[in-house]
Amino acid sequence: MNSKAAITLRRKANQKGEFPLAIRITKNRKSSYIYLGHHIDLKYWDSKKCCVKTAHPNATRLNNLLLIKLTEINKYLIDLQSENKDFTPLQIKNDIAFIKSNKNFFDFANEHQEEIVNTKQFSRVAVDKAYKNHIASFAKTEDLPFQDINEDFLKNFMIYLKKKPKLSDRTIANVLVYIRLIFNKAIRKGMIDRKFYPFGTGKIKIKFPESHKVGLSVQEIQNLEKLRGLTEKETHAKNVWLFSFYLAGIRVGDVLKVRWSDIYDNRIHYTMNKNSKLVSLELPEKVKPILNAYLADKRSPHDYVFPELKEIDRADDKTIYAKSKNENKHLNKQLKTIAEKAGITKKLTMHISRHSFGNIAGDKIPVQMLQQLYRHSSVTTTMMYQSYFASAATDKALNSVVNF
């Protein structure tokens, strides 16, 4: 059965009680609709002639638009039939929408940027903007059709990223993931045919290089705990680091947002900034002296435990994120001098507290329990994370061979 197109008025009113004008595409008794962006009152619709009644103030313009769109779609359907192509009504609708759309890659990239700003995903805003700028610099234009981002484009783009901005292999992989994300959004909205998708089997495969995660040993952490004679700023940085470590490596952004009201029933309760998951952990005894050190500065039950965010408007998420990021740099600067005083040669940063917990946990804790402590969505993620630290079995295997 050949596809057919017809002008229609959809019977689903908007808030004003007006109904949308549309083109209905039908094949094998299945239909899909292309909406034209105009609504009219039901009294202005001629259901027999399938047109807007002359009583409507814009009847002539609307009827001309309907005929033009119907002619365009019918021409497209004739072309499909002449090429013996078999498409469902939905595929035809999506193809037509893609052909009629002037949106290119950067249009979708800018929409994505607005979306993450509106959803307050501030950690991604600057990063995704940088990825977008790399693509624009390479393409030398922001008028970039999706079809132009093919395998050759991406291969040359990867070479460019290595040579000019001199990005690491991991960052290059992240840029490709960003491009893939924008492609998938456009495909889901029917603005690009999947045949133009440059990723997957036989095409561009995104490969992440293995990363090297380093955590402190038990002895090194004991050296930190025993360290005395520090400046006030160094003591504070040590406290924040140990607080994070004792609680399974809480990320610094979450540590600085902990309030006194989050601590009750000998537990800490907080929401992870990264994935909005709720966490509840029993307070280890080693955490309590750290909390006691900050009790004198407690202004109210809902005050922050640590001082970094005390003067910030709690409703200003953007400023809180920026302040936390900046304070993380200051803490890491203090940790560098602390490491020297403790005789630690490894790079000591706030994030290393999470790696250190993983390093010491090793094979001691079942992976399912570690998943809960880390709040990973998948146990596979936890297994991959712990694989960087669980070396006891391989060490034993190695020694069983060479110790003869």
UniProtKB/TrEMBL annotation:
One Pfam entry name: Phage_integrase
Residue ranges occupied by any Tyr recombinase domain in the UniProt entry: 211-403
Biological process terms in GO annotation: DNA integration; DNA recombination
Domain Core-binding (CB) intervals: 103-187
Keywords of the record: DNA integration, DNA recombination, DNA-binding
Cross-referenced InterPro entries: Arm-DNA-bind_5, CB, DNA_brk_join_enz, Integrase-like_cat_sf, Integrase_catalytic, Integrase_recombinase_N, SAM-like_dom, Tyrosine_recombinase_XerCD
Origin: domain of life: Bacteria
Any one GO molecular-function label of the UniProt entry: DNA binding
Membership in a protein family: Belongs to the 'phage' integrase family.
Full protein name: Site-specific recombinase XerD
Lineage: Bacteria, Pseudomonadati, Bacteroidota, Flavobacteriia, Flavobacteriales
